[in-house]
Amino acid sequence: MKQNESSMKNKNGFLWAGAFLFLLFLTQDYLFTTWGNGTSFLGFPIWLGWFMLIHFLLIVVFYFFSKKYWN
What is the pTM of this model? Predict the structure, then answer.
């Protein structure tokens, strides 16, 4: 039974590592887009929405990660 639990934890570890690496990839936006000098409908720079989206996703992933490992 212990070996099966260890195997499941290992698979989850790869899933979490993949999730965090994906978020790291999203932060490298300069590799796949060029942000113009324009502003959004609220007057903020366009890239600010991307910045807020990535940070929201990071908070969500950290929340589920902490619920899984630290209850």
Answer: 0.72
